[in-house]
Automatic annotation (TrEMBL):
<dbReference type="Pfam" id="PF01408">
    <property type="entry name" value="GFO_IDH_MocA"/>
</dbReference>
<dbReference type="InterPro" id="IPR050463">
    <property type="entry name" value="Gfo/Idh/MocA_oxidrdct_glycsds"/>
</dbReference>
<keyword id="KW-0560">Oxidoreductase</keyword>
<dbReference type="GO" id="GO:0000166">
    <property type="term" value="F:nucleotide binding"/>
</dbReference>
<dbReference type="InterPro" id="IPR000683">
    <property type="entry name" value="Gfo/Idh/MocA-like_OxRdtase_N"/>
</dbReference>
<feature type="domain" description="Gfo/Idh/MocA-like oxidoreductase N-terminal">
    <location>
        <begin position="40"/>
        <end position="164"/>
    </location>
</feature>
<dbReference type="Pfam" id="PF19051">
    <property type="entry name" value="GFO_IDH_MocA_C2"/>
</dbReference>
<dbReference type="InterPro" id="IPR036291">
    <property type="entry name" value="NAD(P)-bd_dom_sf"/>
</dbReference>
<dbReference type="InterPro" id="IPR043906">
    <property type="entry name" value="Gfo/Idh/MocA_OxRdtase_bact_C"/>
</dbReference>
<dbReference type="GO" id="GO:0050112">
    <property type="term" value="F:inositol 2-dehydrogenase (NAD+) activity"/>
</dbReference>
<protein>
    <submittedName>
        <fullName>Myo-inositol 2-dehydrogenase</fullName>
        <ecNumber>1.1.1.18</ecNumber>
    </submittedName>
</protein>
<feature type="domain" description="Gfo/Idh/MocA-like oxidoreductase bacterial type C-terminal">
    <location>
        <begin position="209"/>
        <end position="421"/>
    </location>
</feature>
Length: 488
């Protein structure tokens, strides 16, 4: 909790500044407060996929002008620029740019939003901060643990608003469930369980080729170390490549991981897990994807609470979609789809429920409201929260990536005396066996090791820590390198 309090203190008051009443602003931050009637000018970066939603939402707001669209694909960029000019009178002078660095130099830009491949996310947060721009960054806010810490350091140092695209932070429904859980209404929570189970198909194989003439391949790659262009990277399937994406766990799963982390007791909600493990596989698909389409992961926190997570993507007859969060309590009760189901017929406790703070305006409007107030603490999911919830997924992925093949059967899971973890693993195992048709004893799980993590240093300790610590840092291309946290 101390680190979070320091983040809030630094965000609001700054290291040094002009005192006005009880508030303190640096001269730079005081001058950047944007009134509700002032035009808020921004750039949207990455406009092929999720960026289209950014354009639609921001352009629909009063006194918000999208001044620039940024994308390394000329064809996509030109289409989006023309569409926005035709559809929004406030943004009818919008310009297109391939390189975000040129846009960040513009003095009249207040903020950027980032909907690029994951390997770009933290770098754009850092560059935005260094140029005094606020930043809405899509999930996950980082591609690895180390760069998340650097982005957090930059947000703190420069006092910008960073809002993470974990949209459930702006949901009344999820805010109310988290508030009820934290209040003790259902007793002590033992397990916060996230599910990112949505049907997908394999991506097949594509040959390496020269990049198309409309694509600035150097800018598309950015920090990622990739040898050659492949159509199975551009524009969406990079999610299933470790150099650029993070798999479903930190794709769709970032939303559910964030809720799972959010619901933990306050004593550990702003810490990292003390140990993690993950297992799964990429079943039934013969393709170029690297990340698992089936996964069960476990993280244990210092107070004994757990986060479980399921990924289940391989489509099959009778597939049941599950994109949600569930919560299991000490007395056997469960909170499922917002409905509390007790173990023994008892009712939820009558306690005073203190609502978790939330800025109005939805996922995008709340960001603009926080920017207008120049208040990083108003962000619904700031960079501090983003770093901790994204790291949860990164650590699980690291365990999986260090895993070894184990025969596909019910004995594959290694959960000690954690009966609930074994029960939840068996559910996903039976779906893989009976629904997906994965043949018992003719296929293999990838079973990752239990890894111990020191939250203070943000390094692994204990068995296999040397190997695990190498995966905390992605290799980066020198043109797009990041400074250390103390030199942002």
């Amino acid at each position: 909790m101390k680190e979070r309090r320091e983040f809030i203190k630094k965000s609001i008051f700054g290291a040094s500044g002009l005192t006005i009443g009880a508030m303190s602003f640096s001269a730079k931050s005081y001058g950047s407060i944007i009134g509700a009637n002032d035009r808020f000018r921004m750039a949207v970066c990455g406009v092929n996929g999720r960026g289209k939603s950014h354009i639609s939402n921001f352009s629909g707001m009063d006194n918000v002008e999208i001044a620039y669209l940024v994308d390394p694909d000329k064809n996509v960029l030109n289409q989006r620029v023309q569409s926005l000019r035709d559809g929004d009178t406030k943004s009818n002078r919008v310009k297109g740019e391939a390189d975000v660095r040129r846009v960040l130099e513009m003095k009249d830009i207040d903020a950027i939003s980032v909907a690029t491949p994951n390997s770009w996310h933290s770098l754009m947060v850092v560059w935005a901060a260094q140029n005094g721009k606020h930043c809405y960054v899509e999930k996950p806010a980082s591609h690895d643990v180390h760069e998340g810490r650097i982005a957090l350091a930059a947000a703190e140092k420069y006092g910008i608003v960073v809002q993470h695209g974990a949209q459930r932070r702006s949901s009344d429904e999820w805010r109310d469930q988290v508030s009820d859980i934290k209040s003790g209404k259902f007793g002590k929570m033992l397990v916060s369980h996230g599910f990112a189970c949505k049907p997908r198909e394999g991506i097949g194989y594509k040959p390496n080729t020269a990049p198309p003439s409309n694509l600035d391949w150097n800018l598309w790659k950015g920090p990622a170390v990739i040898d050659q262009y492949n159509e199975n990277l551009v524009h969406y399937n990079w999610h299933w490549n470790w150099q650029v994406g993070n798999g479903e766990l930190n794709n769709q799963g970032t939303h559910q991981l964030d809720v799972a982390y959010w619901a933990l007791d306050d004593e550990v909600a702003n810490t990292h897990p003390v140990r993690v493990m993950a297992m799964g596989g990429r079943f039934n698909w013969d393709d170029q994807g690297e990340t698992p389409n089936t996964m069960f992961a476990v993280a244990q926190f210092a107070n004994g609470q757990y986060v479980f997570f399921n990924v289940r993507n391989a489509n099959h007859e009778g597939y049941v979609k599950e994109v949600t969060n569930r919560f299991y309590f000490e007395d056997g009760g469960k909170l499922i789809d917002g409905e509390y189901k007790s173990h023994n017929g008892s009712q939820a406790r009558k306690v005073e429920v203190k609502k978790v703070p939330m800025t109005p305006g939805g996922a995008f409007g709340s960001f603009v409201n926080a920017c207008r107030a120049n208040d990083p603490t108003m962000a619904n999911g700031n960079m501090f929260d983003a770093h901790y919830s994204c790291t949860l997924g990164h650590l699980m992925n690291i365990s999986y990536r260090m895993g070894e093949k184990v025969p596909f059967n019910a004995k594959a899971g290694s959960f000690g005396d954690n009966k609930l973890a074994f029960e939840e693993f068996m559910k996903i195992h039976e779906i893989a066996r009976d629904g997906m048709g994965v043949p018992v004893d003719q296929a293999d799980y990838i079973v990752g090791p239990w890894l111990e993590f020191d939250g203070e240093s943000e390094f692994f300790v204990g068995d296999r820590s040397v190997e695990a610590n190498r995966l905390l840092f992605d290799p980066r291309r020198s043109e797009f390198d990041l400074p250390s946290p103390d030199k942002v």
